[in-house]
Hints:
There is one protein chain. The protein has a single domain, classed as Alpha-Beta Plaits. It contains 4 helices and 4 strands, in the order E-H-E-E-H-E-H-H. The radius of gyration is 15 Å and the shape is globular. It has 93 residues and is of the alpha+beta class. Strands 2-3-1-4 form a 4-stranded antiparallel β-sheet, covered by helices on one side. Mg(2+) binds at residue 7. Homodimer, forms a heterotetramer with a Cas1 homodimer. GO terms for molecular function: hydrolase activity; metal ion binding; RNA endonuclease activity. Its EC number is 3.1.-.-.
Amino acid sequence: MLILSYDFSDDRVRARFSKFIKQYGRSIQYSVYEIRNSPRILQNIKSEVELSYKPRFKGSDSVLIFQICEGDKKKIARYGYAANEEKDVVVFE
């Protein structure tokens, strides 16, 4: 799993990055995403940041990527709405 956090001062760049990153994961906060990890996905994200976003960085802009290993996933405490995100949903018709 990856946790990705970003902050851009330019609204257009922030909106564009948000649209880009949504294809890989789900938002857990406004500018924080949880992404299912694979080497290919991580490389795609890093390449896009390097090529398209890093050249536009201003002084306070940032992208942080945290790689969470399987052992560490068990250490994550989820509360409220986030606690239900990992549970399976069963629908009866």
